[in-house]
Amino acid sequence: MAKLLVGHLSDIDIKGSRTIRVQDTEIAVFRLSDGSVRAVENRCPHKNGRLSEGMVCGDAIHCPLHDWKIDLKSGRVHEPDDGCVTTYVTEVEPESGSIYVTI
Ligand code: FES
């Protein structure tokens, strides 16, 4: 496991995202409206939509392709759909605002 510096809070607007690539995996890092930061694999379990291009709503991301809703904390798809995405532990350094993702 590695803890990677992926950016700074000021790099991501509230309800916005940025992506990072680690080897073959693209990870989407989101900033929720409560200011917290979440990271998931940037691939919808339905048909691989890019979640980073979806809309953040509360704790969920709405996939841009067919509007599946995915909980950004657990990675679980909201019912009635089914599936899950890989989530990653995130950490924000309070003093600097640096964002770390554990891969
Ligand atoms: S690809 Fe995400 S809902 Fe279809």
From TrEMBL:
Q: What InterPro entries has UniProt attached to this entry?
A: Rieske-like_NirD, Rieske_2Fe-2S, Rieske_2Fe-2S_sf
Q: Which GO terms describe its molecular function?
A: 2 iron, 2 sulfur cluster binding; metal ion binding; monooxygenase activity; nitrite reductase [NAD(P)H] activity; oxidoreductase activity, acting on paired donors, with incorporation or reduction of molecular oxygen
Residue ranges of the Rieske domain?
4-99
Q: Name one GO biological process term.
A: nitrate assimilation
Q: Which UniProt keywords apply?
A: 2Fe-2S, Iron, Iron-sulfur, Metal-binding, Nitrate assimilation, Oxidoreductase
Q: Does the keyword Oxidoreductase apply?
A: yes
In its UniProt entry, what is this protein called? Nitrite reductase
